[in-house]
Amino acid sequence: MITNIRQLLQHWREQQILQRVTKPVDPEFELGAVVKQFQGKTPLLFEKILGYSVPVAVGLGGDRTRVAESMGILPDAIISRLMDAITHPIPTQRIEQGPVQENVILEPEELDSDFPVCRYHEEDCGHYYVSGLLVVKGRDGVKRYTSIRRMKFLGGNRTNIVITSPGLQEQYRQLEERGEPMEIAVMFGVIPAVVLASQVSTHLYDTDKLDVAGALIGEGLKVVSCRTVDLDVLAEAEVVFEGKVLPKAREYEGVFAELGGYYGGESDQPIVEITAITHRNQPIWQTILPASCEEKLPMALTREATLFATVRQVVPTIRDVHITMPGAGRFHGIIQIEKQREGDAKQAMLAAFAGDKDLKHVVVVDRDVNIWDPEEVEWAIATRFQADHDLMIIPGANGSPLEPSHELRGVSAKMGMDATYPLGQEKMFRRAKIPGMESIDLRNYVE
Q1: Burial of 36 by CB count in 10 Å (0-12 exposed, 13-18 middle, 19+ buried)?
Q2: What positions does the domain 3-octaprenyl-4-hydroxybenzoate carboxy-lyase-like N-terminal occupy (predicted)?
Q3: Mean pLDDT in each 10-residue stretch from start to end of the chain (447 residues)?
Q4: What separation in angstroms does the CA of 406 have from each of 139, 415, 417?
Q5: Residue range 75-288, CATH number
């Protein structure tokens, strides 16, 4: 069982999956340019970062097969494992001491002295921490809220933090009205299961996401108490920043390259004051290239679990779902069903749009179409879809602020495409097959 990124990197090193980058790399643009070549799908270990003595791991969670492997399961079991983990989380185990506190730096003076803070895209307004997993106590004072939040380095021991979650915004607002800071911890260097669990919807499931992460790997994660704030963090994280989001303190943030591949806007954001840094001996730093598959895949996987559960309520014969990476991990969905009635495809579309406001385009296909192959999906649209009969458009609906065309009007049009063939027409739509095709090994025929 893999419980920390050191074990994971060693496992991939032994399998010759991990790519080592031994050339010195600049954290200003160069690191991002190298990662971009791999789209965040390949595990990379940058061994020499200019100005720093720590290695940097990237690309740990950008490929379905690798994410599944890190949890000890097959790729096609990810969604069922995630749904079960949400329903049956495994509580964390608090221990007195953990590797993440082998080194403790109280009242750090310069956050960027030991750990790289990168600038990724040309017009980014500054250097950012983008892979830190935020930990905050819920308003009940018991449950933990975890999510990935970008933090712009402001100098010294201060950063911005972008808080977009409505629940977290409301919690911060209430504290701010009382003149109180919000205590936070930010974990760096965690396994893919922890990142995946952090993307589970809080308002839908109201669960402690660190407990969900434990269920994903089949064992409760070990946590330790922070040194300067009243929070628990993963004992096997590589680095933790402890701090407080200050009340009534804001500073300019943005422009920054967002999830959809465009630059986002500018606004004043809350300020974080870091009160302590703890880390393992010989720590491994971790980052994520914004807008890469490593950023999009965890979002897509959790949305697939929600999409499957939502559609299944109205179309019980749903077989599989896929949120695509080119659709920014949230805008495009493909739904595979075993159609029983002519209205099933449209019911699936309606349920999908109702269950996820960010979904913009949905294609519904039959069971014989491989939804993981874009060519198969396009073939189904080309041969089974008629626009005057199978197209559904819902104008003026809510969408995602991360999608620029939505921001032009503040609403989005939803489009559903029924690429299933009509019931009773199986003979016309039977696919051409060659007997024995699946057993052909080309290595036996060509050199």
Answers
A1: middle
A2: 13-86
A3: 96 96 97 96 97 97 96 96 96 96 96 95 96 90 88 97 89 94 97 97 86 97 97 98 96 90 91 98 97 95 96 97 96 97 97 96 97 98 97 95 88 97 94 93 91
A4: 32, 14, 20
A5: 2.30.110.10
Same fold, 75-288 and 313-419: no
> Which residue type sits at 80?
S
Backbone angles phi, psi at 142, to 5 degrees: -120, -65
Q: Virtual CA dihedral for 19, 22, 27, 29, nearest 10 degrees?
A: -70
* Count of alpha carbons within 13 angstroms of residue 430, beta-carbon side: 5
User: Which DSSP symbol is given to 299?
Assistant: H
Per-residue pLDDT tens for 57-85?
A: 999 999 999 999 999 999 999 999 999 99
Which tokens is 445 given? 């025929």
- Which CATH code of 3.30.420.40, 3.40.190.10, 3.40.1670.10, 3.40.50.300 fits the domain covering 313-419? 3.40.1670.10
User: What three-state secondary structure class fits 114?
Assistant: coil
Q: Parse the chain into domains and list their residue ranges.
A: 75-288, 313-419
399-429 pLDDT, tens per residue?
Answer: 998 888 988 889 999 999 999 999 999 999 9
Go through 169-184 and write b for each residue having 16 or more CB atoms within 10 A of its CB, e for each that does not. Answer: eebbeebbeeeebbbb
Quote the CA–CA distance of 99 and 360 in Å, as a whole number.
44
Write down the mean pLDDT value for the chain: 95
446: left (phi over 0), alpha (psi -120 to 50) or beta: beta
Query: At CA 72, angle to CA 69 and CA 76, rounded to 5?
Result: 65
